[in-house]
Amino acid sequence: MQILITFLAGYLLGSIPFGLIVVHLNGKGDIREIGSGNIGATNVLRTGNKSIALITLFLDGSKAAMALFIFEYFYGVNFGLIAGASALIGHCYPIWLKFRGGKGVATFFGFLIASSWVVASLTGLVWLVVALISRMSSLAAIAAATLTPLIAFSLNHSKLAIVSSILAVIIVFRHSENIKRIAKGAESKFGK
């Protein structure tokens, strides 16, 4: 029962559509009608307002970190990992938006920062290197997510490696349209 409660609490926290809320409060309309229609920070940036994109990035990352910290504090590491992971699931598949949410990258990094700053730093480094070489945020996110379990495992964070493997599958799946565009050479790049 405690596992179910932990999952639901993390999921509901993750389901808060901060991108939608922040964009609306700043008079930019409905983020689902802008760019890709995604509620995440990358699409919020397409409103032309870097400040609200940064706020969205921070809030989306905070969801998983907050869930992890709260449940780890009260119930231990395992429950913290469950709560943080379920926040990412809530972000990607929010009940309030007919299960159409973001791609989970900022929430994933929030989860990693709260779990292990070393793993988060190395994952961030992977994202940065791939982004600089390819100039594609989506490819950088996919590479970072898929390498995170290996990074965690190599640093003896076996529980984090297992959970991040599941989250990496979700992130890659959420980027399936990006993967198709990358394969066709049609994915958008930074500065275009």
Total beta strand runs? 0
Strand content: under 5%
Number of helices: 10
**Succession of helices and strands:** HHHHHHHHHH
Largest sheet entry: none
Integer-rounded radius of gyration: 16 Å
Average residue-wise pLDDT: 92
Question: Could you name the ranges where pLDDT drops below 50 across 5 or more consecutive residues?
Answer: none
* General shape: globular
User: Whole-Å distance between the termini?
Assistant: 49 Å
Oligomer: single chain
Helicity, as a percent range: over 70%
Q: Given the helix and strand composition, which structural class is it? A: mainly alpha
Tally of separate domains: 1
Structure, described:
The chain is mainly alpha-helical. The protein has one domain. Helix content is about 75%, strand content about 0%. The chain is built from ten helices and no strands. The protein has helices at about 1-15, 20-25, 40-45, 50-75, 75-90, 105-115, 115-135, 135-155, 160-175, 175-185. Helix 5 runs antiparallel to helix 6 (about 105-115) and helix 5 (about 75-90) packs parallel to helix 9 (about 160-175). The longest helix has 26 residues, at about 50-75. It starts with a helix and ends in an 8-residue tail after the last helix. The model has no long low-confidence stretch (mean pLDDT about 90).
